């Protein structure tokens, strides 16, 4: 029975290698070492395909997908390894997909590594993997995070070079539909695909795994969060919003949603860590397409979607260790959307504005940037817009600075420069 399952998965592996592969910007870490390679990221972000192609030239390898329900009842891992040995003729490199589904997986892979196997693991739960790996595999693994397609990767899908007008059309679609690979590559309906994926993460990856006592509360919390991307929140405000009885329950449920790569938070900047912990965070979603698929609202809030797209790109770089990400707000409630810190210095302050043609809006964005720039000693001030591109020097009651306006789609294509 197990040999049949492993053989079927092998055939699936071989079939997938014949499909068109879109090269990703991320490079798998640890391929030139004997360390364990761990690839984490949202479910259906392309982790398996990414690993398969990273191992394309590696001989004597095997693949096991632990997201296969036919393996859920297997209690002895040695039986799986025996089947793998027969089907693949005693491989030395093992690709284990969605490894978090295996009970005590961290002890098993630790043993396999000691036995001399080269291991590549994927998983869709960030805290579970990092916590257990750090406990049992200290210093013996490296981690790569793979998120859905960036806008640059979406543009790379085109077989020919695109005009700027065509890039803007693609950007408008990307903002609404998000970056999950399958809808782009297979031309699927993104709304139904993402609605199903969102629910699968909730009820398969969270409710079942953690034996959630109040699944309706978790569902309500997730829908409230996806409907309020780019908004500030505290645990108390979330508890009130979903009529929960306990801040502690909401803290746990939010943690599960974050671990499953649905949401992430950006803290308010302060030079004092204690102050950061006491203030509200801003909420973002790892893929903007979930807004269209699951939000309570029936029309897209373009400003929030644009801001979320910037947050995802900056978060991508934060996960790569390039920067630390915050937002800024003063006592007068003036706000800067993103504070980009590298090392001990603030390198960039970024506002996102869908309508800089409105003088009141533009003046508000400028005033906040100039005040934050003076307070944080940062002179790289940026406003990301729909399609305005220019640089202007602005002043405000003794404050002065040059502000760079850039179309968001161009900023996403250019990549983040910290110089």
Q: Can you describe what's shown?
A:
- The chain has helices at 2-16, 47-54, 77-88, 105-114, 126-136, 151-155, 164-177, 181-186, 190-210, 215-226, 235-241, 247-259, 273-278, 289-294, 302-319, 359-376, 408-414; strands at 36-40, 61-65, 93-97, 118-123, 141-145, 232-233, 263-267, 281-285, 324-329, 335-342, 345-352, 381-385, 390-396, 399-407.
- It has 17 helices and 14 strands.
- Helix 1 packs across helix 3 (77-88) and helix 11 (235-241) packs across helix 12 (247-259).
- The chain has 3 domains: 2-145, Rossmann fold (3-Layer(aba) Sandwich), CATH 3.40.50; 189-300, Arc Repressor Mutant, subunit A (Orthogonal Bundle); 324-414, no CATH class.
- The strands form 3 sheets. It has a 6-stranded mixed beta sheet, sandwiched between helices. A 5-stranded parallel beta sheet has the order 2-3-4-1-5, sandwiched between helices.
- It is of the alpha/beta class and 419 residues long.
Oligomer: single chain
Q: Overall mean pLDDT score?
A: 92
The CATH topology of the largest domain is: Rossmann fold
Quick one: overall form?
Answer: globular
CATH class of the largest domain: Alpha Beta
In the sheet with the most strands, the strands line up as 9-10-11-12-14-13
């Amino acid at each position: 029975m197990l040999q049949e399952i492993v053989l079927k998965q092998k055939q699936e592996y071989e079939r997938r290698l014949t499909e068109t592969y879109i090269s990703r910007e991320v490079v798998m870490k640890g391929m030139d070492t004997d360390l364990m390679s761990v690839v984490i990221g949202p479910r259906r972000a392309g982790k398996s395909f990414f690993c398969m192609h990273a191992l394309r030239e590696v001989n004597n390898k095997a693949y096991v997908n632990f997201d296969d329900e036919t393996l859920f009842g297997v209690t002895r891992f040695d039986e799986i390894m025996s089947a793998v040995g027969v089907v693949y003729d005693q491989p030395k490199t093992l690709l284990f997909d969605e490894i978090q589904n295996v009970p005590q997986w961290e002890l098993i892979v630790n043993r396999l590594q000691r036995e001399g196997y080269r291991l590549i693991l994927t998983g869709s739960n960030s805290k579970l993997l990092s916590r257990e790996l750090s406990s049992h595999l200290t210093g013996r693994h490296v981690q790569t995070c793979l998120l859905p397609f960036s806008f640059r990767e979406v543009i790379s899908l085109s077989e020919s070079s695109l005009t700027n007008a065509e890039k803007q059309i693609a950007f408008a679609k990307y903002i609404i539909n998000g970056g999950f690979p399958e809808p782009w590559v297979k031309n699927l309906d993104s709304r139904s695909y993402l609605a199903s994926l969102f629910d699968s993460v909730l009820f398969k990856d969270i409710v079942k795994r953690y034996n959630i006592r109040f699944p309706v509360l978790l569902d309500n919390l997730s829908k409230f969060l996806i409907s309020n991307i780019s908004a500030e929140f505290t645990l108390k405000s979330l508890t009130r919003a979903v009529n929960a009885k306990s801040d502690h329950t909401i803290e746990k449920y939010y943690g599960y949603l974050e671990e499953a790569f649905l949401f992430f938070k950006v803290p308010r900047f302060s030079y004092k860590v204690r102050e950061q912990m006491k203030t509200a965070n801003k909420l973002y979603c790892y893929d903007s397409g979930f807004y269209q698929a699951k939000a309570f609202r029936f029309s897209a809030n373009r400003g929030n979607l644009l801001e979320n797209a910037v947050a995802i790109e900056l978060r991508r770089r934060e996960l790569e260790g390039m920067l630390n990400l915050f937002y800024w707000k003063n006592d007068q409630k003036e706000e800067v959307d993103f504070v980009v810190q590298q090392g001990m210095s603030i390198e960039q302050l970024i506002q996102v504005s869908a309508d800089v043609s409105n003088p009141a809006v533009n003046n508000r964005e400028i005033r906040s940037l100039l005040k934050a720039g003076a307070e944080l000693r940062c002179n790289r001030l940026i406003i990301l817009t729909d399609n305005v591109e220019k640089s202007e020097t602005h002043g405000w009651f003794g404050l002065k600075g040059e502000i760079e306006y850039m179309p968001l789609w161009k900023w996403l294509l250019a990549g983040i420069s910290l110089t």
